[in-house]
Design brief:
The complex is a heterodimer of chains A (287) and B (159).
Chain A: H1 2-30, H2 51-58, H3 62-77, E1 86-92, H4 94-100, E2 105-115, E3 120-133, E4 141-157, E5 166-184, E6 188-190, E7 195-198, E8 202-223, E9 226-240, E10 250-251, E11 255-256, E12 261-272, H5 282-286
Chain B: H1 2-25, E1 39-44, E2 47-48, E3 51-58, E4 66-73, E5 75-77, E6 86-92, E7 101-115, E8 119-131, E9 136-141, E10 145-146, E11 152-158
Parallel strand pairs in B: 1-11
Antiparallel strand pairs in B: 1-2, 1-5, 3-4, 3-6, 6-7, 7-8, 8-10, 9-11
The chains are: A alpha+beta (287), B alpha+beta (159).
Amino acid sequence: MRRFLHSIMCVAFLMAVTVNGYAQEQEQQRKVTPVKPSTNKVLTPPKGTDEKIIQQYLTGDTAQARAQEVKDSLAKIYPRYPKLTELSLGLNFGDAILMAFGQKYSSFDVSATLNMWNRFQPVLIMGLGRAKDTPDDMNYTYTGKLSPYFKIGANYNFLFKNEPKYQLYLGARLGFSAFKYDITDVSINNPYWGEFDQSYQLKGVSSNALWGEFLAGLKVNIASNWSLGWEIKFHNIFKYKKSNNSKPWYVPGYGVRNGKWAFGLSLYYSIPLSKNRWPVKEEKKKK
Amino acid sequence: MRNILRHITLAVVVAVGLAAITSSCNNDNCIGNSTGIPLAGFYRENKAVSINSLTVYGIGAPNDSVIIDKVSAKNVYLPLRLSTSSCKYVFNYNTEGVGNDTITLGYDAIPYFESHECGAMYNFRITSMEHTINAIDSVIISDPLITNADVVSIKIYLR
């Protein structure tokens, strides 16, 4: 009986060893990676690939080469200008032209525009405005005294892929002015009661106004760093101060209080910033 | 140099064009009167009515001039005198058996500049009112501030 049990244990041990060996063999077979014959095929680089990148591939630094290749291909379709691309100083003289055609008020201002990434352009504007008008067939003279105004805003340049010397942009502004005006030479007739040339004066009336503007503009390089810019603006007064005796007709920097549209013409001088980081044109690269 | 002159010429042409557009969009016509004149309307039982053959004049007007004379009127402007602080108006109904009425208005004249198109004018603030009661039942000043707006500010209720 003892010999019989011993024989059974020996058989069981041999079977266990055999099964285990078979399982290990199966496991090893599953981990084998098949090798394709095309692995050793020589891939030619795309046409126009930079020699430096090709050399990086050849020396085995493929990760860096690929990263550089992606960066260069993006740069070709999307030239990135530096954060501080240029600073433009402007003089708005559009009203000088309009005054030559009969406009009775004018605003002149200087502006500083910081071109960031050739896209976003914060703008700061300071100026002076005045008005004087004695309308035909009316009974008064309106004098808007020379007063300052301020505007702050930003532009978005839609031609950000092109050079900054040509820009097409939309912008928004917030403007404020505190000013004074006179109403003089008033002549009022009250024919029923036989009262003629009744007169009064409103002098030194103080007011202020806060307004917003949406504008579309075009900026074109004319020579060296000089550019001309046209702007057409839609604007609206949010709030203005009216006295017990009058409402202002003219707001410096805005124009006629009831007006909704305005026009601007400016001369700009641009100072390039970080020019060594500006994208280089392809033809220049070839040279 | 020629290039710059060409750009400047173009700038002027564009400027004039845009100026023409912007100025044509900025018209601001005067929609009210050229000065503040109270408009009186006639009512009977809260309904606006016309009076046939009505004559209205102000006492003390030069040459006894009348405001309206024997016309059918639903409302009438009552011009205020600038050199005094009250005006008296006579309402003659030109009807047998109906006596004339008078309305006296006391007021302050307020110099006012409305806009570029409406010009300088006077507004008035009605401070007092008296009337007789022949054909008139009552008079209500609906808005004591008389501006150049073309609205009824004195409601005359008839019997």
